[in-house]
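Incident log, support desk, overnight shift.

02:14 A customer reports that sequence design results differ from what the structure should imply. Their input is reproduced verbatim below. On-call engineer (initials T.W.) acknowledged and began investigating.
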């Protein structure tokens, strides 16, 4: 399926742009912090593409202290947490992302979809497979 190969690249591009254009109210960190954050996000994207959800999530966790107010990083970590079955954490990360999203209506809407998916998933038993359209929240 061509979308499967396209999606990680899209995630990478969006996160890289978002990490360089973080919320205006955020304190400006030295440019090497942005570079470090971008490198971590690129690494997480490659790990995600290879199906390594746990390492990808850990890599995004390492990017958060560098740019803790980056709404895209929070969103994509939330998506990973949803895929890992950590529904409450996925919802919390999407809410945190929405608090920092500014005027990015598209990301706000994807966060709302992520919140709804996490809430829906919490209603199912942990062993149940939830039919999610992950493409719509990415």
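02:41 Re-run completed on a clean worker. Output:
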């Amino acid at each position: 399926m061509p979308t499967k190969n396209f999606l990680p690249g899209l995630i990478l591009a969006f996160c890289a742009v978002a990490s360089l254009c973080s919320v205006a109210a955020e304190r400006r960190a030295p440019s090497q912090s942005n570079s470090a954050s971008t490198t971590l996000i690129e690494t997480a994207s490659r790990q995600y593409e290879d199906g390594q959800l746990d390492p990808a999530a850990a890599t995004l966790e390492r990017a958060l202290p560098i740019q803790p107010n980056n709404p895209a990083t929070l969103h994509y970590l939330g998506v990973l947490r949803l895929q890992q079955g950590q529904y409450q954490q996925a919802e919390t990360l999407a809410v945190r992302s929405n608090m920092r999203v500014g005027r990015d209506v598209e990301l706000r809407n994807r966060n709302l979809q992520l919140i709804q998916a996490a809430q829906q998933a919490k209603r199912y038993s942990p062993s149940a497979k939830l039919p999610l359209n992950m493409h719509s929240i990415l």
